[in-house]
Amino acid sequence: MAIRYLTARLAQQIDEELMNAAGAFSIDQLMELAGLACAQTLSKVYDKKKYPRVLVCCGPGNQGGDGLVAARHLSQFGYQPKIYLPKPGSKDLYKRLQTQCANMGIPTVNDLPSALPSSDVILDAIFGFSFKPPVRAPFDTDLPLLSSSGLPILSVDIPSGWDVERGNAEKIGLNPDVLISLTAPKLGVKDFKGRHFLGGRFVSKRSEEKFNLNLPEYPGYEQIVELTTPMPDHEPELKL
């Protein structure tokens, strides 16, 4: 049976269940595991000898928090990350993650055009699955710069600028080379053509069965698994 991909409503429902009394996860835990999976994906695809300089682009929400965690792990893996925050998050958790990165000596850059030439690969953690077009300032100028940079891009969960269900229908989003879906793939990435990984080894068997996710087995101690089987064109949403 094929892996299930998620609508925005169902993705939100699963997130809520993970963090309610039944799931018992804190957002800190989920973000740590998600960011670790993102860092592991980048290190698997982009060897640090050839791609040592990682530009981690973080939005102000939970997606950006995943990126900050990934930046910290990438530094520990031996990469040279730097962080670009078009619009920094205001929550306490986000600020603590920024402090953790600063304590690792990871620089934050303020000027995207000058940061791109000194980067080897981009980690896109700007928008999450709750994004709805249009792209507003300051992101409306950043996405074209990232797209035209010529650098390889790895996107987290959903490429920035894509609608979670309609994909890049507006043709305003990034076109990454690699995607790491978190928890389960989202409906909008069914036509994604690059290398596609799944991360988020925090989904319980109970939740997997309840939502009919049909997740693949993660190999050994890996936090990620590459998806090699094409996903179906459509699957009706589970009625709960």
UniProtKB/TrEMBL annotation:
Q: Which reaction does it catalyse?
A: (6R)-NADHX = (6S)-NADHX; (6R)-NADPHX = (6S)-NADPHX
Q: Which GO terms describe its molecular function?
A: metal ion binding; NAD(P)HX epimerase activity; nucleotide binding
A Pfam short name: YjeF_N
Chain residues that bind (6S)-NADPHX: N62, Q63, G64, G65, D66, G128, F129, S130, F131, K132, P133, P134, D157
Q: Which UniProt keywords apply?
A: Cytoplasm, Isomerase, Metal-binding, Mitochondrion, NAD, NADP, Nucleotide-binding, Potassium
In this chain the YjeF N-terminal domain maps to 11-215
Q: Name one GO cellular component term.
A: mitochondrion
State the EC number(s): 5.1.99.6
As to how many cofactors bind and how, the note says: Binds 1 potassium ion per subunit.
Q: Which InterPro entries match?
A: YjeF_N_dom, YjeF_N_dom_sf, YJEFN_prot_NAXE-like
Task: Give the top-level enzyme category.
Answer: isomerase
Cofactor needs:
K(+)
| Residues the entry annotates as binding K(+) | Q63, D124, S160
Chief localisation class: cytoplasm
Q: Where in the cell is it found?
A: Cytoplasm; Mitochondrion
What this chain does, per the record?
Catalyzes the epimerization of the S- and R-forms of NAD(P)HX, a damaged form of NAD(P)H that is a result of enzymatic or heat-dependent hydration. This is a prerequisite for the S-specific NAD(P)H-hydrate dehydratase to allow the repair of both epimers of NAD(P)HX.
Family the entry assigns: Belongs to the NnrE/AIBP family.
Q: What is this protein called?
A: NAD(P)H-hydrate epimerase
Q: What is the lineage of its organism?
A: Eukaryota, Fungi, Dikarya, Basidiomycota, Agaricomycotina
